[in-house]
Structures are given as structure tokens and as C-alpha cells.
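Aim 2, interim progress. The first record below pairs a target sequence with its C-alpha cells.
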Amino acid sequence: MQIGRIHSWKKVTAQLILLALPTVALALYLLLNVNRFYSFLQNNWLEQGLYFTTGLVAAIIFYGYRFRFITTALLLFGAYFIAYRLLGKLSVGEFDAFFISVKFLIFSMLFSAGWLAGYGFSRSRYFTIFWSVFLLVMQIIVVSKTSEITANSLISAFAPVLVYAFYIIYTSELIRNMNEDEPGFGWFITKRLTGFIALSVVLLFSMLLIFQKQFNSIEHDWGGSQGGNKKNGGKESMTKQNKDGSLSNKDQMKMTGSLSKDKRLVFVAKLDNYFPDGKTPNPLYFTSTYYTKFDTATQTFEEDKNFPKNDLFSPDPSKIPLYFTKVDTAVITNTMATLNRKVVSADIYKVILSPNEYIAPSTAFFCQPLPVENEYKKQFKSAYRAKMWVSDLNSAYFIYNPAGNKQLETFQQQRFEMLRKATSYDGLDKRFMEYYTYMPRNEEYNRITELAKQLTKDAKTPVDKMIAIRDHFTSKDQFGQPLFRYSDNPGIPGLPSASKLNYFLFENRKGYCAYFAGATLFMLRSLGIPSRIAAGFLTVDRSSKNPGWYWFYADQAHAWVQLYFPGYGWMDFDTTVPDQNTQQSPQPDGTPPMNTQQALMVADGEALSVDTVAKRVTMKVKKMLFHDENIPAPEVKDLLMDVSIASITRDTGTGKLSDIKAGSNIVAVSYAEALKNIMANETDNLASLIVKLPKPAPVDEIKIMETEQQKKDRERRQEAVSKPFDWAKALIIGLGIIGFFILLLFSSPWLIWQYLNSKAKSNTANARTKAYNIYMASMYYLNQLGIVRENQSPQQFAEAADKRLGSSFNSFTNVYQKIKYSTTPLTTKEETLVQDFYEPFKEQVRNNIPLKQRFSSFLNIYNTLHYFTKSKIS
């Protein structure tokens, strides 16, 4: 007995191509995203997609025949059961059995989902609606558990599903109602689908554009990264890129599902800090800022400009003239550190670090901008010297395993023994203690407190408690594997409001520096130990040929904790475990920038005039350093300078002489031999010293010191020039222009009618003009409504129109022809006909032609073209 068919092969083929193919594409996309976050799926998304595809295609073909769903479904589940029992007998070992069972479960679920979808596409009219809702719900669940909540991730996650939902519902109904015997069936389907897809894309794009603010609002409220971070796809970064392309540390730090890194060289530093042997470099972390506040709503660590005992020195090097200095000794007092401290200097050479950024080991108190040698100006934009009040007990080596290096092991133990002397915080300022031991109080943070107390139950001193916390992060699980792992993509908890720190500490146990530092901070504060998070760059000693020189790359941007010890001050501790999977930044090539020249004269002031031909600049000097001595300047003086060999620089790199404008703030530096034998007496001031200088005074370097407004103006110009082409904006404008012309095109029949109608209704005293206007408007009106004059005389056309509409158009036409071709005046009756004809005529037309037909006719531009192009018999 032959099994009957429900669908022809033509309809089954349409279902496979138009329904199954897009469904498989979407399934592969969803499986790819899910595999990135769930390790038990083992990233076999192609294989899993094949399971789903097989079930879908088989079901569409199978249910094209008259098979019942319940019977075949029971047979399918029976086959699953038999296969599962057979696999159980074939597998060897407990681990193999578990692995095979998991894989079979994945297969059966995906194959069944494909089978169910195939049946729905083939048999059920309303299945596509439930299927679309199901996919949207599943996507919401997956996104909430796996993706960082950003505008870009939300759009990329839901846009494909929404497009698919609209498409599958429309196409399924189109196939269901198709006439298989219709000629040109394939062309009919293609036209319908092309129009629908184009309309759907425009509508979806418009919807996403309209609701962009709402997406950004969701990102701000629930997400883990800053909105509009387009360059890194919505990922968090420890640094931010400025409009001029430079990098800066951020004023906040979020714990997100993913971290963005890059390998660009940011700056190079020469640090004058060594172990007691005077040969072995002792690197220190370079600090940019401190995060002392925590926003529980967004789970963000933030700066606080008003934190107690402010010991953060953060000048803007770009605003300090070359060789002049800025010093703040108050920060030294605020460290409350007197034991084992010394002054250390560092020279920092910026590559892409922002000109106004100041970074140095803790605690810095001194800044002196330095020139960059001519041969290094292409690589390094600017430089400065920093001086710091540092502890002998601080070292970046603390985070590295010193096993095998006796010197480092000894240093580490000596550090701990020294810090164990600090046992009590009695006598410290109450506000200081309350501020640096504050933590939120609720059930989630109470879990962190309980963990901290459990880990440190045997520790007596603050440093031993710190060591116990560090040991927890470096401990092993029952299988000998690290309990905590470093990951740039740790994921986030399922609910946006859930504590990311708790998820890190008790469930996921993988993260990057923000997670380790944040968890350590709250455990320390819960134990009453003053602590804060420091942000900057970790230091790696790679330069064996040039001891004391360190190269800092963007992926070394870092966060760690600092603990306060009475008498010893703030000490660096880093609990972030090493990243075993990421390669280090490339080894530094080239020679460090050595500054061998001694500046004999440094003048700070304002440019008065610039002669680019003679290479002369006249400046109004406000301050001067001469042979490293500060020259008294009771009044400003003019100085003529020879700049024929001078290099022109600014904080963003090299410049040109023409960049110096009258009124520009500049600093002139001279290394000229001609100034070596000129000495300033004790009685000399700026005016008397300038008299002794050569005229013009030789200058080797001029640095342009931009004001904030000048800097903003330059950045705006650079942004306008370097801004990449915005394809999305271009597409919007293009679609807008096309849409406008389409709207104008299809509305042109109505616009023409409005013009002719208004002229016909005008109260003109001239009967000839009025009759002409009425005749033209009437003819156009009839033509647009499909009553077209084809090879007919005016009387013939008017009689045909009257016959169809029951109007008196023929009578009016006769009067119009008389006016047009005769000089005989109109009778009173004829004049009355001209005056009273138009409005009743329009009413008769409207009564005979429905509104729907009139509306569609006025969208028909072919009738309009016909009116203006067809030849007529007068």
C-alpha cells in the first residue's frame, strides 16, 4: 500500500530552502555563542548543528507524507532508549560512561528539537509563532547568563532572532497559501520574499536606531562596561583611548564578563631603584590613581578626590615648562610613613601615554619635564622626571614565585618579618580607619566576611592575614589543579543584579586583576585592615642589557591592593594569579633614550613674533633657568632668538616653526657652547642677564605649551580629519534620501492635483481663464482615476465620462470649446454653468468611485505620466 502525500515535492523543496536553511543558520549562530561560555559542550558547535539539521530536514521530508506525529514520536523515543542502553554496555570505565551519556544527551536534545521544528513547519499553521517566542525566550536566558550587557551585545544577540522571527512567520504562511500550478511560481516567491526582507531590514534598522538610547540605558544600569565602547566591542579595558589616540588610566574600574587588551608600547621608564648590592634592579609598580570607593549599584570601583590623607600627586606634565619643576611635599606627610623610606627617581618617556598623564611609583612628589633627544623624537613624544618617597620593603617581585632565587626569597621573608612588627592600628585617625575599612553590609558581603575570617583564623598580624588571603588564591583543589585561574573572559552571573565578587569567589573562580583586587580589598576591610586599590602598570624586568630600564605595554595596565601599616605606610600587594595562557608582550628592541645634553638656558614665556624666513623668534620671557639656577624676574623682558637649528616640539610629538603663533606659550632650551662661559652674578636678574646673551641667542629646542582651549581646538581638528568614515550614518542618510525621493515620486500625482484643484477653485472674474482651469483639473482628475482619453475627441470623451459617472461633463466641454475657439460671448446660462459646474462634478465622481480606488489611483504614477505624454485629439 502506497503512503499518501500531504505536500508535493515542490512545496517540500520550498520548505527545505526557505524555512529549514535560515533555521539552520540561526541555530549555528546560537550554538556558536553558547559553546563559547559552556565548557561541557567542548566547542563542538558544528557537530551539534549537524544534529539539529539532520532532525529538521528528516522531519520536513518525513511529514510530507501522511504519518501521525504521536506514533512516530513514540517510536523515536523508543529508539533513543535502545541506543542509550547499547551505549551503556559498550562504554568502558566510569569516566567514559559519563562522557558518552552527556554527548548522547546533547545529540538527542538537538535532534529532537530539529525534528519538532520540522514537524511544525510541515503541519502546523501557528507553530512558527510559538517557535519564534521560544527562541526569543531561550536567547534571553542565554544572554543573561553568558554575555556582558552592553548595547552592542544586546543588538548582536537579538537582532538575528528578531529578523528570523518576522521572516519565518511570513514565509511559512506564504508557502502554505502558495498555488503550485501558478505560472512563474518561483519568480512570484522571489519577489515577495525580496520585498519582505527589504522592508524588514529597514524596519529593524529603524527600530534599533530609535531605541539606541534605551539599549545604552540598559547597558548603563545592568552592564559591566561603558556604553558606546565601539572599538573593543563592548569589552572593559583598564585604560581608555583619548580623542588624540593617546592612552590614559580610567577613573573607575568595573568587573565585567570580558577584558580587552592590546600589545602597544605605552611608555618606557628608567627607575633608579636597586637591591642593597647596588646591581640587581628592584622594580616597582607604577601608580596612576587609587580606587577608594565602591558603587554597589553598578559594582564599580571609583576614584574619590576627597579621600582622607590624600597622598596622590597627579600634576599635568604638559603644563609645566621644560626643566621647571612642580613639587608637593604634603603628600609625603600624608603617607604617615617614616620607617624604611627613601627618595628614588625615575625618568618616564611617553610613547602613547597621554601628555597630561602622570604616572610613577608610590608615593611621587616631584615632576620635571625633560626634552627628548632628536634621534628619539619619532618614538617618544615627551618625557619627565619623577621623584618618589618609596619603601625599602616594596617590590614588584612580590607577585612572582621567587623559588630558586635565594636573594628574592630572602628579601620576601625579610619584608614579612619587618611588617609583622606592625600589629595594631590603635591611635590612628578615626576618619582614616572608618574610610579605609568601610564595606557594604548585606548578606552577599557577609559571605565575604565569613570567608575572610575562616581563611585568617590562625593569622595574628595584618601581614599574616594578607599572606593567608594570597595563599587562598594560589591554592590547589582536590585534583591538584589551581583553585583560581586568570581569565580575560570570566563571564558574569546569570542575574544582572547578582554580586560579581561572590560569583568570582564562590562559583566561577576565574577572573582578571579587577576581580582579584576587589575580592582581596573587601576581605581585608572586613578584617579591619585599612586597604585600597591602586591602578597603574605592573612592572616586568625584561631588559638584561640595560638594567633599570623597563618597557610598559598596554596589556600591563593593572590593579592591585595596598595595605596600610603604621609607621611603614602603604605597601603594594598583588594577589592576581599569573596568566598561563597569554604570551608576554614582545621583548623590547632598540636602545633606551639617553639624555646626555645639559641645558644651559631655559626660557619660559610668550611668542611675540615669528620670522619663518630668517628663522627668528622673539619671545617675552617670564621665567628663566640659567646654568640650573633660577634667575629672578621682577619684570618680563623680550629675547630675540636664532631658531635656525632648533627642533619644534609639543606634547603630542614634533611640530613646525609655523606652528608657533604670536601669543603662543613656548619654552626655549639652549645647549649652545656660546653660553658656557657666560655666568650669572649674584646681583643679576632677568634684564641684566639678557643683556649678556648673544643677539640673537642660539636656541636648540622650542616646546609649544598649549592652553586648554588651544588643545581642544587642535584635537577637534584632528578628530575631524582622522575620524573614520561612518558607514552606518552614510547608510541612514542614503536611505533617508532614497526614501524622500520615493515619497516625493509617489506623492507627485496628489501634489499636481492639489495645484490644479486650487487653481480651478479660485474666484477669477475672467470666464475664459476659469473655464480653462476647471477643464484642466477635471481632465487630470479623471485621468488619474483611470478614466483615460485614448484617441477620442473632447465630446466623445466627455460623453463616455457622463455615461459612466452620470455627470454633465459634456455640457461643460461644449462651453469650454466655445470659449477656446469662438469669440462669441457666453450667454448668462453658459456663464452660470461655468461657475457652478466644478464642485458638483467632483462630488459625482467621488460618489461613483470608492475611496480605496481613488487612494490607490493617486499612487499610480503611470497614469500621471500618461496624462502628460499621450497625444490628444483637440
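The second target in this work package is listed in the same format:
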Amino acid sequence: MYRRSSSFSSITELFRPNNPRRLRSRDLSSTRLNALKKEIETNTHLIPLKDLYTRLGTDPIKGLTSAAAVDLLEYYGPNTLTPTSHFQWPKMLLKCLFTGFSILIWFGAILCLLSYAIESSMKARPSTDNLYLGCVLIAVDIICGLFSFFQNFKSTKILKTFNNMIPMSTKCIRDGVWNAEMPVANLVKGDIVHVKAGDVIPADIRIIESKGFKVDISSLTGESRAVTRSNTEGTTNILESQNVAFFSTQCVEGWALGVVLCCGDLTALGRVAGLAARLQPAPSPLCREISRFMWYMSIWALGLGVFIAASSFILGYPFIQSTIFVIGIIVANIPEGLQPTITASLTLTAQRMVKKNCLVKNLEAIEALGAVTIICSDKTGTLTKNKMCVRDIWTWNRKYSVLDLDFEDNLKNDKALQALKTCGALCSTATIDENGEIHGDASETAILTFLCAYNDPATVRQNYPKIVEIPFNSTNKYQVSVHHDKNMSRYVVVMKGAPECILTRCNTVVVANNNANITNEIKESVNKAIEDLATTGERVLAFADLILDPKIFPKNYEFDTEDVNFPLDGLRFIGIIGLKDPPREEVKNAIERVRTAGVRVMMVTGDHPATARAVAQEVGIATTPTCHVVTGNDLRNMTPDLLYLTLEKHYEIVFARTSPTQKLQIVEACQRRGGVVAVTGDGVNDAPALRRADIGISMGITGSQVSKQTADIILMDDNFATIVIGIEEGRKIFDNLKKSVCYILISNVPEILPVLMFILFSIPLPLGVMTILCVDLGTDMWPAVSLSYESAEADVMSRPPRQGDGLVSARMLYLVYGHLGLIEFAAGMYAYFTVMAEHGFYPSDLFGIRQRWDNEAVTDVRDSLGQEWTYEERKELERACQATYFVAVVVTQIMNGIICKTRFNSIFDVGMKNKVLNLGLIFELLLACILCYVPVLNDFFNTYPLRLQW
């Protein structure tokens, strides 16, 4: 009878649809995440099949009973990937609206509305400035929040992408009856299923019986070739075990009968999907910088608020009036234009990067890429082409490289190469369709593609039609077929497989265009060739043939592959073909440039250690033969501290035979060391690491839909060198963002100090709320954003990644608040006092006049010349003064825009080559004129048409 575990500690129980312990949703999700991070620990692939049937309560002939299957389905749930939680878009939207710098803006908006409410309770005709400002701040926050929401909405689609990989139905037996259309969702542990070529594996299954069964597992493990799966003895690591086929991988050849071991969330794919969906991406460096700056501004604003509150109390202002003052000074400290400026600058940079084949899905990833210190790169499809090719050929005592210029000549003259062409065409199981396209697994396709360049395999196959074939299996390690030689009216046996296996079945070899007996010397030579090719990361296949005697094997001879009745020994050894997934041509130079920029590159792959080391040396990740290689088994025995020390000790590291959870473990270890980590990948197995990294980078052409959905950046040309462009753009945009932030903050000073003058010295308000809004969200915006178009002042790729260089530094704050901002404030106050003086109010008479000035009941305020001013006349003069102050700020901001163009070099060296900034500075002045002189606008923004005079 089937068995169920009742222990909640069992991972199977943990992922049941119902919550056994009724844990809080957050606790259950965290517990599941921690469970998924652990390596798969099971012995279901190691124990004898008879014991496995007993454990699962199944029968290999009849399968499960329908009653048992229904009970198991109800208890454990369907064979699907369940979402982490029901998607609640309002919750995500609120998170986007109330995070980072937006919290400060919301706080400012609430204070503005509160100030308007207080003023409304005190005055019959309150000023609407604070109401308008509050509404504008809310609008800014909502727009930026919605933008962030749509950017982050992609994370909710990750599990949907995984679910697209799952087949709809499969062939399953229950109660002794086969059902060819069994819904995959209804499969349970213990079900017996049948899969054939073209089918997608419906669950994690252990092979019971198979024939020529090959599975493409590249999306799950990163291996670029189909692998054989059969009923053999398993290995400790289930992911490397040859008797297990995994959920969502595809059968490309043969057939198999298997028993279901795991379903849904507990399959290898389910674990990867669960990790990718549940992991939270690391906060970007820019996000951390903005949060830190928000706290600085909050402390500074609150400090000023406390100062104003104390000063108001000392000066004898009423409590309500003091509250309005405190609100005003806090709001004045908020740089409303900062968040839109950063968003717009990053968006424009993203658009430029698209033209360079770099699609940015997450805007913050642009700057993060510039700050990256470690790149953890996948091998297959990222550093290599993910396309097996014939690289080298060995025949007796001679090695040929297909890249050599004289290879084609050698091909014509060498008898062994001629024989190899024929044998390869007949042995390859790949096919050529009517359009000339080649189909088959990676290795077979590579052999046939190579032969098509120098031969016509189709003609060879017509002249040598196949009679019978024994497919490759992991026990024999060879594939053999018998063909009829039409021209000579005889049969030929051709064989390919593991070189050591083929060699033992041969007694002759092609030597110098003749056949010679195999000696110990020849065996040593062959073994050395195998070793040499293997050390370069090549997959080696040996080829042999045998001409059958027509007297023993006459025409129409009945060949039997079950009870083999033709020779499998005494063959002629022809040669060896070395297959390799070649590195991309541009990768080596790209890695060299990245290293010059101080970025460490590590390979993290699921492939064999020897192959990984060879590719690492070829592309420049490993510059010495002693490059440190860490395998998945090594990682399994490492503590987090030991992995940390390994990363510290060895600069050049290659991680091989790693599982998805181990890739995640490596990324988190690098982040614990303080690194900003970028992960490149193209397969499903890369999804958790892509999700957890500071920057996830996927391939646009060869990348799976899952990797694209999870990544922050997609390389549209699959070119690793595009990462170099991304790093360069990231570093440049950070430098330019510092310029934009500096420019925005400078105008903050002449906005804060007038409020302080208004409160402390009781003068008429020099700059109104609406004119502050005109500066922050009007005249400053274009120039601030256009600074992102500035060219790099120096070679940003010749310096190490930034460390400790924040978006806002002490040096910048001194420049803003202690120098340029004060000059701008002085220019504004000079303009303000000048207009006041021209109309009769000298500076000495303005101090202490505010209460009478703002009192509607007072109609006889006298100026320095003895003239009396009504309330309406005073307010009209105040508008003119505020407009003058506003224009003075705009003019000085134009000069500050030129100053902010460069951080290090002289403006005379840099020049005014940024046309967007030049237009922005002109626009800034034109907009100021429009706001002052257009009748409807100057009434709304409380500005005034100024008179031009010398």
C-alpha cells in the first residue's frame, strides 16, 4: 500500500496545499524558501527498484490503483507549480508608491495639505499655494510609483513562464490500463509513465526500462548536449544520476518507461521555480544611495524644523503660526524634482542602451552595472555559442585542426580522413530535411554539419542504406549500424562511441594510407590523443568500421540486433573526432576590458570541471593552468565560512558541476563579501541566481523565456562584450547623476533661505510656494536631465568600481550649501531688495514689517518715502519681487548648469558639446519668461511681468 509521511519537517509535507501547522503566510513562505535553498537529499534513485515500488505503493506492470491516485492527489495537490501567494496588485502598487525617496515627498504633500487646512481655519481667503503644491507632490509620487509598479510587475509573471514549460498530457497506466491522454496535473508519486521522442517529461521519473533514450537537459543543467538516460546504478547527486529524467526536459531520441518520484513544486524544475519566485532581489546601490540621502534630508529638515519652532517660540509667534512656519521650512527642504530627474535620466540611458543591443528591464540596474565588482558568468550560451562543433580530428599519430588553412587539402589526400567522412556520415543519427536543415542532438548535428562542408552525407547514405542499428547506451558506450554498400554489393559495419571502448574492439588501424595491426605503441598513442583532446575541454568520439565477408554475409542476410549475429569486434580503428562548444570570438577581449576596469569574472557552470577549466583558460577567466576549480561536490561539503575564505584566497575561480541552489549560494557568498554581483545566464537553472543577484543578465537569442523574465538586463545580441558597454554606461550615468543631483540641490538653497528670512527677520516672503514649484518641476528639469547626456570626462573603464563614492558626498554638500547655493541666494535677494527699493521700500525698513504687510485689515503701510500702500498694492509688489527673485535664480542656475557639466576637467577642455544641455539652458530662460509674461500662467503661478531696464 502507498505511504504518506506525517512529519511536518518533511519537505513533502511542507509543500502540501493545506498548511498543516497553520503558520502565518510570511513564516510559511520563509520556511519553504529555506527548504528550497538546500540541496536535494533523497535515495529514491539509489535503492533497488523493487524497494522503490514498495515505498511508493505502486506496481511496475499495473501502476497505481485509481483510488490510491485520487487519495494522493487530494493529499499532496496537483502536479503543477503553485504561486507563492495569490497576486495582490494593490499591495504591490502601495509598496511602489511608499518606498525610498517617495516617502519624503508624501510627507511633504501631507504637510502642505495640513498647512492649507490650518490656514483655511484662520483666514477667510487662504492662499491656495500649499494646496496646489500638495497636489503636485502627490501627482509626482503617483506617476513615479506607477512607473515603478509596471517595472516590477514582471516578477509576478515568473511562475507563469515556468508553467509554459509543462506538458498538458502524458501516457500513464493505472489499474493495469494505459491512458494516453492523462492530464499531467493529475500525476502523483508512484505513477508509471511512458515517454517517447518529442515528449516533454511530465515529472521527475526514475527509469525502469528504456531504449536509445536521450534527453535534452540544457535548460535545466546548462549542458549543451542531449544525455543518455537508462536503468543504471544511480550516483549520490540525483542531478547527475543517469537513471533519472527531470520534469520539463525533452526526450529527443528513443523511449523510456519510468516511475514518478516527485511532482510539482518538489521536482528539480519546481525547486528552481520556487526559488526564483520567492527570492527577493538585492537592493540596488542606487536604491541604497537614495535611501541614505533621504535620511540625511529628513534629519536636516527636521533639525531646521526644530530650530524654527524654537525660534518662533522665542520671538513670540502664536502656536498655529509657528506650526505653519515649521511645515513651510520642512517642505522647502524637499527637492521635488530629484526623483523625476533620476527616473528620466535612467530612462533616457536605457533607450540609448537599447540601440547598443542592451535591453534594460529594471532602470536601477543601469547604475548597478556600473558599480558591479563581480560577474558570475554561466558558460553554455554565454561564454560559448551553445552549438557543438567539430574542432579537432586525430588519425594515426597526427592531429588536424579544422581551423587550419591546409585542412581541406589533407582531407583529400589522407585515406583515414576519407574513411572517417564516410563512417561519420553513416554513424550520425542526425537527419537532413528537404530544406537542408539538420536535426538531432547537439553532437550528432555537429558531426553532420562538419561533413556537409566537405562532403555530401545524403549521397553517402544513399550509397550505403542502413539495414539495422544498435543505439548508443551507457552500458556499451557505443552505437553501431550495418549498411549495404551498393557499389560493392557487400555489408559494412560502422561504429562510434567512447574511444577507450572502441579501441578494445579493434585489431587494425589506418596507418599511412594502409591498414596495420594495433600494437601497444599504437594504443599508447591513441590514449595520449584522447587525454590531450580531453584537457582542452573537447568531447571525443572514436570511429571504426569493418567490411563483412560477402560469403558469410550474403545479400538479404537477416541481421539481428537482439541476438547479435554480426561481428562487434575485430574492427578497423579509423580515428577520433573532438567536439567542442566553442567560445564566442568577442568574449576574450571583453573579459580583458572588464578586468582592466577592476571587475572580477568567475565562471559558474553545470558542465564538467575539465571542460569548464579549458573554456576558462581559452576566454581569459583563468590565466594560469593552476586556476582553482570548485565542483558541486566540493560546495556540498563547504560551510558558508569556508566558501567565504575560498573566495578571499583565490582570485581566479571556476565553479563546475553546480546545481541551481549552489549557484545561488555562490552569489550570496559574494554579496556577503560586500560585492555588487552581476550574474549572466540563459537557462532555467540560472533563474534563482539571476533573481538574487544585484544585476541579472540574460541572453536575448539563446536565453530561455524564464531567464529573460527573471533578468534585469537582456543582451539582445547574446554578446558578452555588450556587458562592457553596459558597465561603461553605468559608470557614466552615475557620474552624470551626481552632476544632476548637484544641480537640483543648488536651487534648494535659495528656496530654503528666503523662508528662514521670512520667519526670522519678518520680511515679506521673497519666494513663494508656486515659484518654488516652477523651479523644481519646471525650469530645472530639462537641464538636470540633459546632464545625463554628458560624455565621460575620462576613461571610466580604467578605474576600479566605485567604493565609498556616494551619490551625495560631503564635498558636494559643501559645494551646494556652502558655495554655489549661497551665491544663488545672494543674487535672488539682491534682485528682491532692488525691486523693493525702486518702489520705496529700502532694505532697512523691510525687517519686522511682515505682520503688518500680510494683514488684510492694514491699508496704510508706509514705505521709506512716506507713501501708503494698500493690501492689494503690497501683494502686487510682492508678486513682482518674487518674480524677480525667481528670474535671478533661473539666470544663476544657467551658470550653475555650465559649472555642473564637469567634475574634474576645466570647462574650456570639455567645451559646450552637449547640445541637449545647451537647448535645455535656453529652454530654462524661455520658460521663465513664459511663466512671467503669459497672462493666465502668471496669475496661476503667482509671477509678474517684469519691466526690462538698464
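The two ends are 102 Å apart (CA to CA). This observation will shape the mutagenesis plan for the next reporting period.
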